[in-house]
Each structure stands twice: as structure tokens, then as C-alpha cells.
Amino acid sequence: MTEPGNGGFERPIDLPQQHEEHSEVALGAISSLVGTRETSTSAERLDTVEEIFVLEQRAQAAKFIARTYALSELDPLERALAALNRPMHAVTHIGNQFATKIMPCFMNPDPDSGWEAFSSIPPHTTDEELTLLIDREQFDGMHQSLGEYLDEHKEEYHQAAEQRLAPRTSPENPDQGIIPWNDRYQFNGNETQRSLENMTERGVRISIDPNGLEDVRAAYTMADGGILPVTEIVKNKEVLGVNGFMSSKIALAVHDSIDHTMGFQIAERTGLLFKYANMFESIGNPQHTDIFKREGEALASIGFGVRYWANLEHGFVPLVTAADLLARMDQMFDRGELTDRHMEAFKILRGLGHNDNSREAQSLGFVFSNYIVELDEQRRKHGKIKQKDLVTKKVEGELDPFSADYLSFFVEMHHQLLSSHNKHRDNLLRYHILLEEYLCAVGSGQLSPDQELVIRVQDMKDIDFSQTKLPPSRIQWMTRNYGFSAIRDAIL
């Protein structure tokens, strides 16, 4: 089951002291682009073992069904010919939103009811059609196998849930106590080197993980001056260090720079951080403390979704459409729940109307739905985003993605990312070029793997990209496939 490349939820949690020394790179278009501590504060517990256990079961069930559909036991030729020689097709791409539709069918204790629900799901894309193209016997086999698998691992999943909520006693086990740790970190109020101000000044530091050097060299040889970028070839391998975290993938490098750093910069420049200051204060002000922590995803996931949507299969229908969001805000307006700060988002939604055919409406529906689905993954691994009452300073619940404040912020932030004024797409291409040049330089031996690439997003517009040594066809490929670094699937 194919997931987004990285929604930011895979980031290591133990934050090391960052080093001040940087080696900078200047090759082609690459110009001179030049620690965190943990403290405790109390945070009321909203997460429960049972909730996390259920989310763990769903996540593992999705992986099990993905392996079944992918026919991973076959060699590549057998898999390609599966539709001709076997009872079912090989399906390697099941998006996270479509997975949300089919998983309850396979997990339904009653196979008859599960099959009835499964058979009633309408396909909107080729991948969805292939996923649904199984008969009752195949469904029953997968249903039974999944049930047996979940029963076999039930205790393991329950222990995993307990571990994430338990006090941390072993630094060797990063999952132990991860949710209480995140809850304390959310509201500790300490500015770190990863605050918006510091990240804007210092930039994102990218290096080559020594364990990934041979993969980079092999990818450079494979690219051989052709169209396909080295970044595409190695995007599923842990070849980078990103802001000091080794064993990182391309997706994390782009997510940190474009979705987090540039995303927060756009929100600040357009006044959205000020406009929704109360909401951000209620979740711990990640812009002032650490834009990469759990709460930073409330903003960064919007940019990630915009990139992920760019390579979506034609015909896809999201779980929540722009028309659904408009209907919800219409109800809020009728109940008197909207204030002046919500009116711009309401205006944007009304401008999109009830027609989901415009690109902005299609993107908004997908990006919001993607965030809703990925929230379950965040809750499972890192806990809920807590929200405090600004008067009592007590945690009053989880940040509600359908609240007037967050929904309005989401709509406005998404609108800004699509606006030509903010050059989101142009800066993403600039970033992809710089990263591609860096990997090519290391892969070819022109640059020592010990040297870092330090990118300050705000400086990219001043770089003379006419000096690049990349093949024009490769740059055109990255332009046409600008969301390639957000998904794990290979783009051919």
C-alpha cells in the first residue's frame, strides 16, 4: 500500500545537540547557501492505550493487505504478467485515502457484510479498479488470512501501544515513552535552533550519510547524463543526513526545507501566523520553538499534500471535497460560529463554489483529506496534537481539524501555496535542482562526501541557475513531475 514519501511523521525524536561547523558547497547553481534540549512541563493525557492499539492494528492490517495485493513473492516478470497467469492482478499502489475505504471491509468480523461493503465501493482510478477487481473467493481468503495475522500479533501490538505511553526508562528504545515526551516538548516554550527565526538564518543542512555513499555513486552512474534524476533513483534509500539526522531519505530533505521552513516563512510573510496567533499559541507556538516538532505538521502537512497531489492519478475523488468543506463552513456561519478572521477562508471556499472541477478545489479536497488520514498515523506513533485553553493554561483536548480556526487557516494556507505570488512551485524546482547538483557532484567525485549543502530557502531566488550543469531534459522532467519527491512510487 503506497503511502506518501514522508509526511514528517518519521522524524527521529531524540534531538541531538547540533554542531556549529558547516562545510559549504559552490558548484554550478550551488552557491554559498549557508541542539535542541529537552525540558519537562506537565501535559494532561489524552491518548489511551486502547486507541493506539486500534490504530496499530489498522496500520499493520494495511501493510498486510498491501503485501498481499503486491504479490511480492513473485519475480518482476511474473508480477507484470500476473493478470494473465494468476487469479488476481498485482497492485503496487493503493493510496492512503483509498486504503481508508477498503480496510474496514477486510477487518469486518462478518465476511458477508465486509464483502457487501467492498463490492459497493465505486472505483475512480485505474489503481482503485484493479484493487477492487477480486472475486468473493479471493476476498474471503484475504479476509481470513488478515484475521489470523492480527490475532497472532495482537499482544505485540498492545505492547507497542503501552510502550509509547510508558515512562521512558531506556534511551536505547526510542519508542518507549515517545508520546509523553512529545507532550512535554510541545509546551516547554524553549526556543531551539530549529525555530523559524533560526532555521531561516541557518538554513537546512544536507550531507551524505556514509552508509549511503555507494548508492549515490551507483545512481549517478545509472543516470548517465539522461533524463531521470539521481534524486528520483535514490529517493527511497536512506542516503542523506538532514539537519544532523543520518539515514534520511530525499523526502525528509524536501519536507524540512519546502514544507516546514518555506511553509512557515510564507505563513509569516502573509500574516497567517499573526492572524491565527491564538490557535498557534494554544498548541505551543512551534514557530517560536521548533518548526519540526509534532505540532509543526499542522502547517507543514499542507505543503506536503500540495506536492503529493501533483502526481495524483486522474479521476481521483478525495474523502472530503472542497464542497464538503464549504457546506461545513456554511453551517458554522448559520450558527454564528465564524468571526472576522474566518471570513477570508469562507470567501475562498464560496469562490470555489459547489463545483469541485477547478484545480484549487481538487487540490484542496485532496490535501485536506490526506491530512485527516495522516493524523491517525501521527496519533499512533507520536500522539495527538494537544490544545490548551489560553486562560486556564490547561489542555482542553485535541486540535480539531474541522474547527473554525484550523479549517480557515488550512484553506488560507493552501490558497497561498497555490498563489503565483509566493512562487511555491518555482522554489520547489530550485530546490530540486540544487539537491540534484549536490548528489551528482558527490556521485561523480567532483565533491567530497564530507562537504555539506546548506540551503537557505529565502536565498534561492538570487542564485544564477543558468550556471547549472544538469541536462536540460532532466530539469524539464523535474518541472513536469514536481511532486516526485513526495511519493515513494517510481515515476517513469
Quick summary of this structure?
Residues 1-21, 159-184 are annotated as: Disordered. 52% of the residues lie in helices and 4% in strands.
Question: What structural class should be given to the helix and strand makeup?
Answer: mainly alpha
Number of β-strand runs:
6
Number of helices: 23
Strand/helix succession? HHHHHHHHHHEHHEEHHHHHHHHEEHHEH
Distance between the termini: 19 Å
The dominant shape is globular
Major sheet details:
4 strands, antiparallel
State the low-pLDDT regions, or none.
1-43
Q: What would the average pLDDT be, to the nearest integer?
A: 90
Strands of the widest sheet, in order across it, are 3-2-1-6
Count of structural domains? 2
List the helices and strands and how they pair.
Elements: H1 49-70, H2 76-80, H3 82-85, H4 96-107, H5 111-119, H6 126-132, H7 136-152, H8 154-165, H9 178-186, H10 196-202, E1 204-208, H11 213-223, H12 230-233, E2 240-242, E3 245-248, H13 250-269, H14 272-275, H15 277-282, H16 286-289, H17 297-309, H18 322-334, H19 343-352, H20 359-382, E4 386-388, E5 395-398, H21 404-418, H22 424-444, E6 453-455, H23 472-480
Antiparallel strand pairs: 1-2, 1-6, 2-3, 4-5
